[in-house]
Hints:
The protein has helices at 4-9, 12-30, 38-66, 86-106, 116-135, 139-157, 164-194, 208-216, 222-238, 247-254, 257-284, 296-319, 325-345, 352-384, 395-398, 400-414, 420-432, 442-468, 481-499, 502-511, and strands at residues 74-75, 83-84. By secondary structure, the chain is mainly α. The chain has one domain. The longest helix is centred in the last third of the chain and has 33 residues, at 352-384. The two termini are 26 Å apart.
Amino acid sequence: MLSPIQNYSLMLPEVILVLIGIALLLVAIWSDVPGSNEDNVCPVLALAGLGTALVAIVWLGTVIITNSMSGPMLDLDTGGHLRVDLMSLFFKGIAVASAMLIVLMSMKYGRRFSSPGEFYALVVLTTLAVCFLSSSADLVTMYLSMEFLSITSYAMAGYYRENPRSSEAALKYFLFGAINSAVMLYGMSLLYGLSSSEVYALPASTLLADVVRGVASQPFGGLALVAVTFTLGGFLFKISAVPFHQWAPDTYQGAPTPFTAFLSVISKVGGLAVLCRVAALVFLTPNVDTGNGFTLTGVVAFVLALAAALSMFVGNLIAIHQSDIKRMLAYSGIAQAGYLLVGITAMRGGNELNGLHAVLIYAVTYALMNLGAFAVVVAINNTLHSSELDAYRGLAVRSPWLAAAMAVFMISLAGVPPAAGWFGKYYIFVAAIDPRLNGVLLWLAILLAVNSVIAAFYYLNVVRMMYFEKAEATSPLVVDAPLRLGIIAALAGTLIFGILPAPLYNVVRYHAVIRADLPRLDKPVELAKPTTQGEK
């Protein structure tokens, strides 16, 4: 049993991010004078704060593992609205590490902004929102965290105020986000009303565990179907899954390129954290068999599987026809969301841990290869001021190392060894065909394999243009040192986890665990005629 001080010390990463975010805003205000050194101070301060937060996350994980607390979820308050478990720490680590790479990528690009300090503050605060979202175990804290993430994302999308495209991207993102937020909140309000359970003698509650248990313990009707669909739609919006993907291409193309890179990863990390927690609770909670053929587990699994299949096909097929690499990577991100949803859908029928491990592994590899690809896009944009695919013609002549790095990232996104992408897709595929699922997701695994082949066409097309087409100019490209460091870091991670995947696999396998929360009762009431569906 942890003391109150120890309990709240679990919020150390969030406290650090809050302090750094405030410090960056103060520096931006105080440095608003001619000749200020804001361009150099703010990135260093942001990197220092994010690095400290990453160390705090690793330390907390070590404390939890050392004290054999990897199984239970740790309450941060008496209501259990925020939880810190190893699953949430994994997602927080991915978010913070990604933010550090973004800061490196943004040092030269950030000089275009009138106030770079505010830009870096938004990066830190967006990361903070994802950290809160990863620990949310209550509908209210979940919704507030998602709105926090949305507001900072809108601001970053439109931060390049001198560029009309940036303002257009922010407006479109805001409009789609506002509608999605309203629909999701309506679904959550319905879930709150449906959360009261006679079986468990529970009143209506916003705690996620109680909501899942309450809905699963009663007949699943039309109102529950609407509530679950609307709420899942809000989560799927964050990872840009079909049919909630319309905002991504225009926002990616118009937003500042470093933010586009950040959004492509950070939004998915937040959405995945929520979906993994929800899926774990849903698939581990027994459902009452009412004879109407609908259960909470079945409906959630169907919605996720359908979104996965549509995302893979829509993302890959439309990406083939793109002439702007930022739009191409936007549709690529939609397809990648589909791959991740396959892993989340596989978290059922006793296969919960394998599905979770596959999602976490692929999330790490996706962050590395996608941020690396966008880092090269930033380098090209800084020099040629273009994101058109034509700008990559003959890149191997103008910058051999930059072309080699981009080739590795494209090959990794396509899932070709020895890059890390093949390792991530392999475990997603294995989780989907696990014998414990009795072949239920075999069709989804086949679609994943088919879409990997389709995706290879446009990924390898970039490689072809860099190495087999002539460039209009032959002058070498100059890349600033921080951006070069970011590209090398992403490249090293992509190759290391592809050639030597065992360390990442072992960390995730032995320390990422999930379980259903216990009821809020001293003597829980047994379920009447439960099915075995979703039980572990």
